[in-house]
User: Which sequence fits this backbone?
């Protein structure tokens, strides 16, 4: 230490001790000075920029002011001139934010580390930071905690803004109370860990992201050159690169032959890769498989990060027993205690009529259902056909019904002047009768929602043979409705009751014990075998989310500030 600085620090400490007494008194004085500067900074309405030149972001979290007002502006993270251990623990969590697909600099990490280096340097010389710098450091730490906690609980992006048809039941927490609890107990690591999504699916994706980050740091995986399709038994120098890639993805064990022959072991590993990526698992490295193989690891990492964000939108509990549908995977699963007990392929909406994302409860089944034509389909599909040929109604088993009193009464189509009919002034309701022609098939599974979406049987079973199954107008078609009905009704598949219900020709409703249903959209997840799965972004929701994450107007904290006096602490 410079002798002059050493002498100055000793003199300053002696003056403080004489002025205010023991060290506790010194700390009280310094805390009082820090609190005064915090009050000035928070209530300055951005007029004190001069002392903070070079600091780009400050006090963007709306609860900063609430927190310090409740504390009468006392510092949270400092004790006199020293940092509390909780501050350093928070910094460690910020450094690890990348493990969760988050960016440490969203939480002022660079600014905080710079301030703490200065703080540590002053402490080594037994000198306190200036009151202004102590105040800024304390405020930055509080903002970092509140922002990180908000992102953990609610996500970085408001899904309702980034997706027009995404209705998520997000978690909530009183973050000011949590921070007060941290200050009182020192349990910051426990609190932050408890704020993470509690689902095993989230933890598995975090672990996978860590593995992929390691592979990426070592150079990623090789690119497979273009060429003819590879089939079992082919000899091709590209097999070497293929094997190396499949070993890095975990589909192929080491110790395989060195020859450029597309052998049984590599062929089997390729089938595993195809299954994980939603491809036809024939083992042939054709154009689609080659395209999936050559997706850079950085893009897969980003895909994982986007799905980690979706986990942060999820409710804390799905229900011990529930139905979940992954729209991107075209799959329905019935879950019990986290284990799938029934898996059924489904057909979902087209990219123009997307199946919305929401949660509800299945409460009843309707057998031999009518199909009431929704307004969009009426306008775009049915009405033009009716206008061209009014006999279309009878041939396709449709009826036009008009409400008279409390009843819907069938109208003679011949009495309608179709030349002036539009979707807006349609004379009633268009409904298809039950039967083998009905697109809802023999049963629909009903759960209240504002989207008029439900699960149902179909009369177009051949579509289930397709690998990509986005053909519906938004509702979800189930390949084996008998299996789902059997589970929900609690009857055996050979039950006479089940056979009678499916054979009905007139509509009837059967109530069930309500079961939660969650319609979700995952393009990356870890399966029951511990292997990560990827799916194409059929609705371009990954693209939307990636864009939203880069646009401030979609971010959660911007929405928090929208209803507050943002200018009050919007930046100094």
Assistant:
């Amino acid at each position: 230490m410079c002798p002059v600085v050493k002498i100055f620090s000793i003199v300053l400490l002696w003056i403080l001790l004489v002025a205010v007494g023991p060290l506790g008194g010194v700390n009280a004085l310094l805390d009082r000075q820090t609190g005064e500067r915090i009050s000035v900074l928070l209530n300055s309405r951005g007029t004190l920029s001069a002392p903070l030149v070079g600091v780009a972001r400050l006090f963007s979290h709306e609860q900063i002011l609430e927190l310090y007002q409740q504390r009468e502006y006392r510092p949270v993270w400092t004790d006199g001139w020293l940092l509390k251990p909780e501050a350093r623990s928070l910094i460690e969590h910020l450094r690890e934010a990348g493990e969760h697909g988050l960016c440490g600099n969203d939480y002022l990490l660079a600014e905080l580390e710079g301030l703490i280096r200065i703080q540590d340097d002053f402490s080594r010389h037994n000198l306190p930071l200036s009151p202004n710098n102590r105040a800024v450091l304390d405020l930055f730490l509080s903002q970092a905690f509140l922002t990180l906690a908000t992102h953990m609980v609610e996500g970085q992006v408001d899904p309702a803004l980034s997706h027009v048809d995404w209705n998520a039941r997000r978690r909530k927490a009183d973050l000011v109370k949590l921070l007060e609890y941290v200050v009182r107990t020192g349990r910051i690591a426990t609190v932050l860990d408890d704020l993470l999504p509690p689902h095993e699916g989230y933890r598995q994706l975090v672990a996978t992201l860590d593995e992929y980050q390691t592979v990426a740091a070592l150079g990623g995986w090789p690119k497979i050159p273009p060429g003819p399709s590879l089939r079992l038994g082919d000899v091709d120098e590209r097999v070497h690169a293929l094997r190396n890639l499949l070993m890095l993805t975990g589909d192929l064990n080491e110790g395989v032959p060195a020859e450029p022959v597309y052998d049984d072991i590599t062929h089997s590993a390729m089938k595993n890769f195809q299954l994980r990526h939603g491809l036809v698992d024939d083992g042939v490295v054709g154009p689609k498989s080659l395209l999936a193989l050559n997706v850079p690891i950085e893009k897969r990492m980003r895909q994982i990060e986007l799905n980690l964000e979706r986990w942060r939108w999820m409710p804390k509990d799905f229900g011990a027993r529930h139905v979940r549908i992954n729209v991107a995977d075209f799959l329905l699963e019935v879950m019990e205690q986290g284990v799938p007990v029934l898996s059924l392929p489904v057909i979902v909406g087209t990219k123009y009529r997307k199946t919305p994302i929401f949660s509800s409860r299945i409460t009843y089944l309707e057998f031999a259902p009518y199909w009431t034509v929704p307004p969009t389909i009426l306008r775009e599909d049915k009405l033009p056909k009716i206008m061209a040929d009014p006999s279309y109604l009878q041939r396709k088993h449709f009826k036009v019904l008009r409400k008279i009193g409390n009843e819907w009464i069938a109208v003679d189509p011949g009495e309608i002047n179709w030349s002036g009919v539009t979707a807006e002034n349609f004379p009633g309701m268009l409904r298809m009768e039950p039967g083998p022609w009905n697109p809802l098939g023999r049963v629909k599974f009903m759960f209240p929602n504002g989207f008029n979406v439900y699960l149902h049987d179909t009369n177009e079973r051949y579509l289930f043979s397709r690998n990509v199954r986005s053909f519906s107008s938004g509702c979800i078609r189930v390949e084996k409705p008998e299996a789902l009905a059997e589970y929900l009704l609690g009857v055996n598949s050979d039950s006479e009751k089940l056979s009678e219900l499916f054979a009905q020709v007139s509509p009837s409703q059967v109530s069930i014990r309500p079961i939660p249903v969650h319609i979700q959209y995952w393009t990356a997840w870890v399966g029951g075998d511990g292997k990560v799965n990827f799916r194409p972004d059929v609705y371009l929701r990954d693209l939307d989310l990636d864009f939203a994450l880069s646009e401030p107007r979609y971010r959660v904290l911007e929405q928090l500030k929208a209803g507050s006096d943002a200018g009050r602490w919007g930046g100094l």
